Amino acid sequence: MNATEACIALNMLPTVGPVRLRKLLEVFQEPQQILAAKRSELRKVEGIGTEVADQISNWESTTDLSAELERIRDFGATVITQESPSYPRPLREIHAPPIVLYVWGELHERDHHAIGVIGARRTTHYGMESAKKLAYQLAYAGLTVISGLARGIDTAAHQGALAAKGRTIAVIGSGLARLYPPENAALAEKIRSGNGAIVSEFSMDIEPDRQTFPMRNRIISGWSHGILVVEAGLNSGALITAAQALEQGRSVYAVPGHINAPSAMGSNRLIQQGAKLVMDASDILEDLEVLLPEAKPSPETAARPLPPLSDEERRVYEAIEAAETSIDDIAARSELPSAAVSSTLLQLELKRLVKQLPGKYFVKLG
Hints:
This protein is α/β, with parallel strands linked by helices. It contains 19 helices and twelve strands. The protein has helices at about 5-10, 15-30, 30-35, 40-45, 50-55, 60, 65-75, 90, 125-140, 155-165, 185-190, 210-225, 235-245, 265-270, 280-285, 300, 310-320, 325-335, 340-350, and strands spanning about 80, 100-105, 115-120, 145, 170, 195-200, 225-230, 250-255, 275, 325, 355, 360-365.
């Protein structure tokens, strides 16, 4: 048995958990030694009572590790521990980091720099479009978008990141073999097929319940450098995640909603309480410049070429003067219809080539 297999077995024991595991490792050093320890030795460890010691001592009679390893292999998943290089660095810092993470897909180095995008399951068209737009912008800027694969805002966040051909991680509140909600199976498949991963701390066949979702939420907030709440009612689970983020020392952001919309009462309240109001991804990226520093101007970088642009994008971009330019002037110079100019300017904004100012004026960035 190797260390990862021992951690899988310990993770399957309901009374152990990450905090007790940390206490046990301080004494026994290796997870294999914990499973091999005598009951009397286990009881001497701080926080390990008779019930926990008995469960660890009897682990082979209550846990079928061989069957779990077979399920992992058949599913095509991998399991990482806190000792693994791909284990998210920010997640190691929280009070109770998961003992193991089941991963369906691949984790990359860049996934250590992530933003959680969350919100209500029952949402509005405004909420869905806002989540897609902001997730697109964040993913396009190079951040990994983390969410929970739930209906509503979570789904929109993953879709936005995928549309930007960026990275996205779905942390679920069930075992990988019990993917929830089932209608998001195709979305999960798309995420794991080269765009990110589906991640869980639960054994393969664990069903979702009222306890697993709050546990899942602490992973989303703990993994992320900040949490963006797009739309949430007063009783939304997204508010629990925001509270956990604050406890973990993470930033909390929120999108303002209609003051009479029940679906925005919680997210508006977060802004009242000090969450940063977000209207554009740049509101978040400004806080994260230390993670994504812009290159300082130099003779080499000052004349770097533009990214690939369509004919319409180039015409609109070139129609913007050095000073701020009105959308009417842009339309006149580009000789394009107003509707085409508006949609093209949005694409240029997402590519961080232009910025909109009050009054429908635009300036070039950089």
